Amino acid sequence: METHTIKPVYDINSRILILGSFPSVKSRETNFFYGHPQNRFWRVVSAVMNEECPGSTDEKKQFLLRNNIAVWDVIHSCDIEGSSDSSIKNVTPNDLNTILDRTEIRQIFTNGNTAYKLFCKYNDGKTAVKLPSTSPANAAFSIDRLIESWSIIKNFT
Fold first, then answer.
1. In terms of CB atoms within 10 Å, which of 57, 125, 131, 155 comes out highest?
2. Edge-to-edge strand order for the sheet containing 69-73?
3. What does the DSSP 8-state code read for residue 53?
4. Contact between 127 and 96 (Cβ < 8 Å)
5. Which run of H or E residues covers position 98?
6. Cα separation of 96 and 8, whole Å?
7. Looking at the DSSP assignment, which residues form a beta bridge with residue 72?
8. 33, 43, 28: which is closest to 72 by C-alpha?
9. Which residues pair with 141 in a beta bridge?
10. Could you tell me the CA-to-CA distances from 11 to 6, 14, 15, 98, 142 in Å, in that order?
């Protein structure tokens, strides 16, 4: 059983919430979201927001807060093999009210299909918009296609 140890990033000004499923092995090692260098999350959101791609964890946190973006994951703990979303079992979800009660989130987005399915399963009455995964495993989406799809987030920040 793996437990999520990365604290959510948000503040009172956060207007959108982006949810992944569960941190990858590399993210768990770096103790921050989307820590694998091949994951395209940081390149995509920085392009959408017309900013330089942040490098350090502190720069990433500041980028998110400056752009009114909250980031967390659907899962608090689960059984998972490596970083494979398809292997996820025995899920305990995160309590999203930790963020929703302290912000004025206008829209929740999920990073990929697994996050979306899990969000829907554990969050009755809440809605989310499914965005294509920024994972390198999502080879069907080029970086340009991801940027185009993810541009919708700008409408809510």
1. 131
2. 69-73, 16-20, 107-111, 129-131
3. P
4. no
5. helix 97-100
6. 10
7. 19
8. 33
9. none
10. 16, 6, 9, 11, 31
Residue 136, SS3? coil
In angstroms, the CA 46 to CA 43 distance is 5
Contact 127, 108 (CB under 8 A): yes
Token pair 């900013």 is at which residue?
Answer: 51
Residue % of the chain over a pLDDT of 70: 100
**Side-chain half-sphere of 34: how many Cα atoms within 13 Å?**
27
Beta bridge partners of 100: none
Q: Kindly give, in sequence order, each residue whose CB lies less than 8 Å from that of residue 123, ignoring residues fewer than 6 positions away.
A: 93, 96
For the residues 14-23, what does the mean pLDDT come to? 97
Instruction: Give residue 28's identity as a one-letter amino acid code.
Output: R
Tokens found for residue 112: 């990929």
User: What are the tokens at 108?
Assistant: 């929740």
